[in-house]
Design a protein that fits this description.
The protein is an all-alpha fold and 45 residues long. 93% of the residues lie in helices and 0% in strands. It is built from one helix and no strands. It is rod-shaped, with a radius of gyration of 20 Å. The model has no long low-confidence stretch (mean pLDDT 89).
Length: 45
């Protein structure tokens, strides 16, 4: 197997893992922001 192919096969799972991590971070951040907004809206009532 050529070296570049080994590198590509190693990079693909890394990219998938990084993609999942960033998606999780973004989702949890959005969730926290919404929760904070809800809290402040609740206080205004």
């Amino acid at each position: 197997m050529p070296t570049w192919l080994k590198i590509v096969l190693l990079l693909i799972p890394t990219y998938i893992i990084l993609g999942l991590l960033s998606a999780t971070i973004v989702a949890s951040y959005k969730y926290l922001v919404k929760k904070e907004e809800f809290k402040s809206n609740f206080k205004d009532i």
